[in-house]
Fold this sequence. Notes:
By secondary structure, the protein is mainly alpha-helical. It has helices at residues 11-24, 29-58, 60-64, 68-97, 99-102, 108-113, 117-139, 141-160, 171-175, 181-192, 199-236, 267-299, 307-313; strands at residues 240-245, 254-259. The radius of gyration is 22 Å and the shape is globular. It holds the Pfam family TRAM_LAG1_CLN8.
Amino acid sequence: MKDIFPIPPIPALSRAIQPLADYLGFEILPLHIHEIVISALFYTFVQLVVSPVLSNFFFPQVYGAMSRSKKINWDVHVVSLIQSLLINSLALWCMFTDQERTNMNNDWKERIWGYIGTPAMVAALACGYFIWDLVITLLNLNVFGLGLLAHAVSALAVFSFGFRPFLNYYSCTFILYELSTPFLNFHWFFDKLNMTGSRAQLYNGIALIATFFSCRLVYGMYMSTWVYRDMWNAVWEGPSVEWITNPDAANGIAVRAYGAGAKPIPLWLFILYVASNICLNSLNVHWFFKMISAVRKRFVPAAPKTEVEVKKAQ
């Protein structure tokens, strides 16, 4: 299926990035660099313009009273909410409508080296967000912490190597980690809008825990085993790759054709992906238990203090 992004590749931008793409071995990066740049600029615009304007209009007393660091945190949650809604919709649409991607299901070599326009577009838009996220986290490390920095670095590494192309098939799969993110952001906003402990926050908390557990822990780790297996096969065996012109391919460009005798993927790439994936999954497990604790604090009454604890507090 062709890339449906409404803006075609920008020749000047593609030429500018070509030397870096050649150096890194990111053969399809020039075809999608405009999507990365536009995505990063869009989320920057949402953070700097859209969020402050709408927040001051709808929540002037809450947003207006915040300090600079708290406003940054608020704006970042607005960006995260918008991004997760957009990228989840695109990923699900791609998975259910792209027949070319469906045809890759039974061929591990295509899942590793295959290239299709729509999953690559999803990966490019995600990379744009992760670049924005990395910059914001570095500039405000005291606000967001090392955990979110590790997440931004790992996520950007995993998705950027898709422009070799590599694991293009899985880009939509792993972006579905974000299905729980809208509920996470709503949970945070309920606290800031003095709705802590409300029925709306309770229902949202149930949806948050359910989607986080099912999407990130169960589905995410299950699909990780598929990726590890495919990559391990590719370490020892690989197709020869020949670029051929295909008018039906994304943007009318080339696609992969397979033969015999190509070099397998380098071991360092396998190690990098496994390490990044383990980092992300470990963070998800850590955040899941913190999430349960945070929800319980809002809805489970604290046990009354004993006489000894009261005396210690005095």
